[in-house]
Amino acid sequence: MDIKADSLYREMQMLAAQTKTELTPSVNLQTNPSRENFADMLSSAINGVNEMQLHGRELTNRFEMGDPNLSLADVMVAKEKAGIAFEATVQVRNKVMEAYNKIMQMPV
């Protein structure tokens, strides 16, 4: 399979655009939606990373078993996407923890 940088770039842009639209909060003046929205967003992001990792693992197993429909490039791209998504999730977690620690150290 020929890996095209343009198609990968377009896919990344599409995922970024999808993320931006998912993050747009709905306005509800009666309750505080930020807690639920943040929890849903965080849960969705973690589930997405988990699905990418499971997909990469599945492709790896299929390739190792000799699936003729898979190329090494397919497997490597899936594993790399999962790795990048995981690293991004870890970095977001680190930034959230850093912000939390700074807030907790603020004098009241």
From TrEMBL:
GO CC list: bacterial-type flagellum basal body
Keywords: Bacterial flagellum, Cell projection, Cilium, Flagellum
Any GO molecular function: structural molecule activity
Signal peptide region: none
Pfam families documented for this protein: FliE (PF02049)
Domain of life: Bacteria
Location in the cell: Bacterial flagellum basal body
Transmembrane domains' residue ranges: none
Keyword Ribosomal protein: no
Gene Ontology biological process terms in this record: bacterial-type flagellum-dependent cell motility
Family: Belongs to the FliE family.
Protein name in the entry: Flagellar hook-basal body complex protein FliE
Native organism: Planctobacterium marinum
